[in-house]
Design goal:
With 208 residues, this protein is mainly α. It is built from twelve helices and no strands. Helix 10 packs parallel to helix 12. The N and C termini lie far apart (54 Å).
Length: 208
């Protein structure tokens, strides 16, 4: 935790030294290096992104490496040489190697948080639709966040996914209605229609 604090305070070299010299677990070392990469992207140094990329490349732990790649996707400067989607594709490949459960869901929530913070709402929505564990809660939270940011178009794109759960549909509908109250009736109709479509799809795994 001390190394993470040094990284968050901007003393990247000291944090990395601790991560490399002290017998930290792969998870803890990854946590420190992610914090260091995040601090690097927030610095004013001209080489801040290449520095962050080098740090992420040194992360061995799968979970934190995926998080680091998502961080790069959310902070890569225009004309940086690689498109954000390249980093995100790599991150998704690593996420898919993590068994379904709380650890994967927690990582997906972190990636969504970074995508939203960088304005990559479409990518955030795509990640949200892949979540399995308590997806309804995550989608409901994302809907509230998008509404608070005034991201109406993105919130409307989230509606089909929210229709899979009554709770998520209610929260998404409420969030969008608050953002554009003059369209509340249309929003309710779209949510209801999406819900009927989703429930009407036949699951080939279920008996006829």
């Amino acid at each position: 935790q001390i190394a993470v604090c040094w990284a968050e305070l901007g003393d990247i070299e000291r944090a990395l030294k601790i991560a490399d010299d002290v017998a930290l677990s792969a998870y803890r070392a990854g946590q420190v290096k992610f914090a260091a990469a995040k601090s690097a992207t927030a610095s004013t140094s001209a080489d801040r992104f290449p520095r962050a990329e080098a740090i992420v490349d040194s992360i061995a732990h799968l979970w934190w490496r995926a998080a680091g790649l998502a961080l790069l996707a959310s902070t890569v400067p225009q004309g940086g040489g690689r498109a954000p989607q390249e980093y995100l594709t790599q991150a998704h490949a690593l996420v898919s190697q993590i068994p379904q459960g709380n650890e994967r869901a927690r990582l997906q929530a972190l990636i969504i948080e970074m995508m939203v913070a960088s304005g990559n709402y479409q990518d955030a929505i795509q990640v949200a639709t892949r979540v399995v564990v308590e997806q309804h809660k995550l989608i409901a939270e994302l809907a509230g966040t998008l509404a608070s940011l005034g991201a109406v178009d993105a919130l409307e794109q989230l509606l089909p996914a929210s229709a899979r759960s009554a709770e998520a549909a209610y929260q998404a509908c409420l969030a969008l209605a608050r953002a554009v109250p003059e369209q509340a009736d249309r929003i309710v109709a779209e949510i209801d229609a999406a819900g009927h479509d989703d429930r009407g799809q036949h699951d080939p795994r279920s008996p006829s």
